[in-house]
Amino acid sequence: MKFYIDSAIIEEVSDIASWGILSGVTTNPSLIAKSGQDFRETIIKICDIVKGPVSAEVTAEDAPTMIKQGKEFANWHECVIVKLPITTEGLKACKALSHQGIPTNLTLCFSVNQALLCARAGAKYVSPFIGRLEDINEDGLRLIENIKEVFDKHNLKTEIIAASIRTPQHITASAKAGAHIATIPYKIFAPLVKHPLTDTGLEKFLQDWKSVCIEKTDNKC
Ligand code: G3P
What is the mean predicted confidence (pLDDT) over 68-77? Predict the structure, then answer.
């Protein structure tokens, strides 16, 4: 499973990119608004940092305007993925853009049927939202498992992006459920690295090493 960051804040993207584990980025209109920065400039900067797929979401509600926006975004940078909502108009736009070789990420997925429609419309990615399903007492991880099972059974190549991730446990569970990608908020990355036994183990290694250095007469360690 690949790691994407779900953020439009350049400093957050740069920080996680510097770890050497980042494959892509997803944004949405709320995240762009939160960044307070220009949409086009932000997407281009992020593409230059990550050099991998970067989702930029349309804001139109009718297919012709979605297609127009999608083509414009795709011209900004070769890494842009056009993000579309799963509506009838979004599916039409997905089909048209995919047909022209422009990759799409279909977002706000809450059912297997929606995911199947996206795959049939030629979506490169589909994004089931785990956290928002759990908010209404439904099983978001089961949805990922079910989409994976159906896609495998029917040999559908659309990749599953586990989205609306809220906890480190969502990431392990998404990987086990077969998601190809998890798109993760910035604040969830640090807890993925940390383990108290790593910290205490490293402290002991370094203490022992220092005591050897002190015992040596030449002080060379
Ligand atoms: O990738 C989708 C994400 O931005 C939505 O997350 O926490 O608002 O449900 P959340």
Answer: 98
